[in-house]
Amino acid sequence: MRDVLPEIMKWWRSGLRFGLATVVGTWSSAPRPPGAAMAVRGDEVVGSVSGGCVEGAVFELATEIETPVLQRYGVSDDDAFAVGLTCGGIIDVLVEPISIETFPELGEIAASVEAHEPVAVATIVSGPGQVGARRVIWPDRVSGTLGLERLDDAVDDDARGMLAQGLTGLRHYGGQGERRLDDLSVFVHSFAPPPRMLVFGAIDFAAAVARVGKFLGYHVTVCDARPIFATAKRFPDADEVVVKWPHDYLASVQVDERTVICVLTHDPKFDVPLLEVALRTDAGYVGAMGSRRTHDDRLARLREAGLTEAELARLRSPIGLDLGARTPEETAVSIAAELIQLRWGGSGAPLSTTQGRIHHEIQHEIPHEAP
């Protein structure tokens, strides 16, 4: 949805009507995650719900849609190509007609996304409620209703919790909003601010890490105490470059479980006090660059500083996956690969040597925002 938002806002502001298809549920090797969206107006198409597998069928439905409908796409062993999702997965897609009249809150949602203000859209997708009923939830206000006050209250609580973690997905309730029943399904689409990547050490490796971090959707900050090296010109892909002692800066900013901390200084006077702070935050990932000898020396210094074994166990050092990386760009790829592995629970082995599902269930919430 975030990817198609700029284009559909042009249509919406012009008073045009269009079809919006959103992936709300996935099983097995589904090609796109919940929240992936495709918008259709006439012969114009933006976005994707399946990477190409069922786009044709969704396009036809979206061009004709009059009322919201939940459509399932999958395969059968006998005739896999007939349905179109040849990867073997199953996806549920909510297809809705969108206009200023049917979705008056879309302008506020777009403004919040642009301003990096957290906002969630909760939509009934199946069950005894009105399919397509929508409620928009901000941390401090709401708009719209799902039809029942009790259901609204339950969804508000869940949606705000999901926003805090950057999660998008289905939640199930009873027809009257009961939490222990599951006959009514609500899709909560979170638009959380981008997760943060804090890169410490203004070196060439940091420039490559900042570049790949931005590519993955992070808000990237590069920090170093040396003003001659920490400049915006040297780090054009970073959202901000901060000249400050790393441990002082880290202690001054908000860190949550989606935050990634990359310590690339490999200089004890910088990285030991920095890691003292980092390993006691809620950061989902703390990695430090350096040789194995540097790592052993670093651990000894951190133990002397009073860190516990549990705190030290959170440190990923040497940073990244074992890809044989040598250049700054290759090292950045190995760090990105480790973040993705932790996010989805992959083995890191070549897919050609593994069996079973390609797409894993989510394991950690650190490095990826809702689409």
From TrEMBL:
Gene3D superfamilies: NAD(P)-binding Rossmann-like Domain. InterPro entries: MoCofactor_Util/Proc, XdhC_CoxI, XdhC_Rossmann_dom. Residues 11-73, 113-174 form the XdhC- CoxI domain. Residues 197-339 form the XdhC Rossmann domain. It holds the Pfam family XdhC_C. It comes from the Bacteria. This is Xanthine dehydrogenase accessory factor. It comes from Nonomuraea rubra.
